[in-house]
Amino acid sequence: MPDKYFRGENPIGQRIRFGAPDAPWYEITGIVANVKTSGLNAAPEPAALLCAFAALAAILGIIGVYGVVACRVRWQMRELAVRQALGTQPGDVTRHVLRQGSEMVAVGICAGIGGSLALSRAISGLLYQVSGNHPLTLASVAISLSAVALAACWIPARRAARVDPLVLLRYE
Questions:
Q1: At CA 27, angle to CA 24 and CA 28, rounded to 5?
Q2: 132 has a pLDDT exceeding 80
Q3: Running DSSP on this structure, what letter comes out for residue 50?
């Protein structure tokens, strides 16, 4: 594939940019071998499988965070209804649930970064001119995963704030 995009030149060390003209430049640090995805007789195509697995992992993570927060909100629904009956505003309930979700997300991000740093030495021999614990990569992944996880917490938080406390307390 490097021949297709770089006209026979060595792509390692060259810089590329994706998207808009003001997008950041990236330096090519390694090349992955061609992979046959459409059969043994077909020419190899650029790798969509890795993107599909990454998207699937992100979707499963979002579903997991949503499920945990929604279950926790369901368990606390009576407590939240009592708080609202005593005068707590719906925005305060939303912030309370988001704070609890962000605490869980922070613990998960810290554990993930710790595991990544601990395992970076184990895979350092497999990487070519790339650090296994690059700070910018770790920070960007942590920030993006935190944003997605907090977005997943938003739905149960809004649902908890919209519950009519009198109906819930009468029901239970």
A1: 135
A2: no
A3: H
Assess contact for 42 and 36: CB atoms under 8 A: yes
Distances (CA, A) of 57 to 51, 113, 139: 10, 17, 19
Q: Are 70 and 154 within 8 A, CB to CB?
A: no
Angle between helices 90-123 and 49-75 (to 10 degrees): 140
Q: What six digits make up the tokens of 116?
A: 């990544």
Q: State yes or no: pLDDT of 26 exceeds 80.
A: yes
pTM of the model: 0.62
Higher pLDDT, 43 or 138: 138
The percentage of residues in the chain with a pLDDT greater than 90, rounded to a whole number, is 11
Angstrom distance (rounded) from CA 144 to CA 44: 31
Tell me how far CA of residue 46 lies from CA of 12, 56, 57, 169, in angstroms: 17, 19, 20, 57
